[in-house]
From TrEMBL:
It comes from the Eukaryota. Keywords: Membrane, Transmembrane, Transmembrane helix. The chain crosses the membrane at residues 66-83. It comes from Caligus rogercresseyi. The keyword Transmembrane applies. This is Elongation of very long chain fatty acids protein.
Length: 94
């Protein structure tokens, strides 16, 4: 609770304190993820999200619909392969 109140205090969001917060998060990161794409730094996330912030509402709606369809098909693909690996493949515990 004490840390939360410190984070929410008004002067905590100054640029000096934000830098300290970023560095404290950076030092406690999981170093096993450093070689993963987009995980080695904050910059790839910022660079990839910048064009999206300039999209109009209509374009964003189309983009979100496409994203949702991709998520639905990906989930269906994983679920069907899960079934193929188990129940649809005459799997038996005995």
């Amino acid at each position: 609770v004490k840390q939360l109140s410190l984070i929410l205090s008004q002067d905590n969001f100054s640029s000096k304190n934000r830098g300290k917060m970023y560095m404290s998060h950076w030092e406690t990161r999981d170093v096993r993820l450093d070689n993963w794409p987009l995980m080695s730094s904050l910059w790839p996330t910022l660079v990839l999200s910048a064009p999206i912030s300039t999209l109009s509402t209509a374009m964003m709606k189309g983009f979100m619909n496409l994203y949702n369809l991709v998520q639905i098909y990906g989930s269906m693909y994983m679920f069907i392969n899960f079934l193929k690996g188990g129940w649809y493949n005459d799997y038996n515990l005995r």
